[in-house]
Amino acid sequence: MYDISIIGAGVVGLAIARHLSKYNLKICIIEKDEDVATGATKANSGIVHGGYAAKHGTLKGELCIKGNQMYEKLEEELNFGFRRTGALVLGFTEEDEKQIKALYENGLKVGCKDLEIIDNDKIKQMEPHINKEAKVALYSQDVGVTSPYELAIALAENAIANGVELKLETEVLGIEKTEDYFSIITHQGEIKSKYIINAAGLYSDKIAHMVGLDSFKILPRRGQYILFGKDQGYLVNSVIFQVPTQQGKGILVTTTYHGNFMIGPNAEEIDDKNDVATTMESLEYVIETAKVSIPNLDIKRALTTFSGIRAASSIGDFIIEESKVKGFINVAGIDSPGLTAAPAIAVRVREILEETGLHMKTKKEFNPYRKAIFTTKGKDFDGKIDHEDKDKNIICRCEKITEKEIIDAIQRGVPIKSTDAIKRRTRAGMGLCQGNFCRPKVREIIAREMNIPHEEVTLRGKNAVSNIDRVDIKLIRKYKK
Predict the structure, then answer these.
(1) Which of 49, 129, 258, 387 is catalytic?
(2) Element holding 338 (H helix, E strand)
(3) Quick one: 297 and 388 in the same domain?
């Protein structure tokens, strides 16, 4: 019998698990996929938002600003990768200027302290490659960038180290409520739990329906991106937005935490929650809109395209509350700025649990620290391909990832069964050749270290979509309007 079962191992569910692992509670995380962070968490902008765009008086507005201020401590403890970059919201017209002033006023109400409206001269001084037609911008110092899946992985590893159990490849098929507990039916067997936290992302409405709740619906919203090489990173120093639309914050231009240049996302309402295809029509829109901000981006330097699906809700705000079914807590509709808000959402869930009467006794032995995965980055070493020393044996030549780094990533409490799982942890396969050289070598290491047959090592997981319909990157590189 578990005290708490968390359904969903995205960044929100894992932030909750790690936060609750501070207390003497028996906790498990239930995830249908073969790894953590395989849904919206692995495919978003990685922006830690400043909070000005989330409306004052909403949970999004409140928890975004609180979560933003928790990132330095999280980075100090978990070593996942985060840095403050600041952000500009560009305005080109009088109407844009009105919206920027409204964002500024909203930001002050929400609690943003480092906001400033700047003119064309200051914009050009801060961002030399920006469109010279930008007349005004909102400058937010608090915005930062992180690697969302690396954060989620760090949260998972630390939660596990503090006693949380992770049940991967365990899909919830039904939930039965008894007088004292929930019986969670999965294809791996029954799980009994006193409380359920529904953090199932795109499927949180489906999970809620299992206990008879129908107060909200998840509306999948797809966003498509183009990722470039690091050689284009010089184009921006901060995160560059245009004024937001009703669909979201619009097309942004940024560098990722690891220095790759990136543009996107658009926003498309779709029916299929698994449709992570990219389309030429949408990517053309992303390119042309991004060029409004940075006219000289070199589309020939594009590496790959990808898309992610946000779990927008019919409510229009985060849903974080104990439902009318006692002990069943919904944490649903966590779209943008959910990544930013995740650590604050975890605190809010703990407060809800306390309000229900759950006894929360702090663990004396709780360890908040997690070592970063070993890396050779920034170190001088004589590594070579097929080196006999694992510390120096280069597996991924594009990103200079060694065998030792891959082994360290495997030996951290979360079972690894796919090459993509290693890619998210070490960047092996994220370089110019996109894994064509290193993927077979990575597969061999996983099979050896996990002591499983080679055929059990997959690209993305045995239940994942094997052939995602993505636009050929050669067409993107040749794109000209």
Answers:
(1) 49
(2) helix 338-355
(3) no
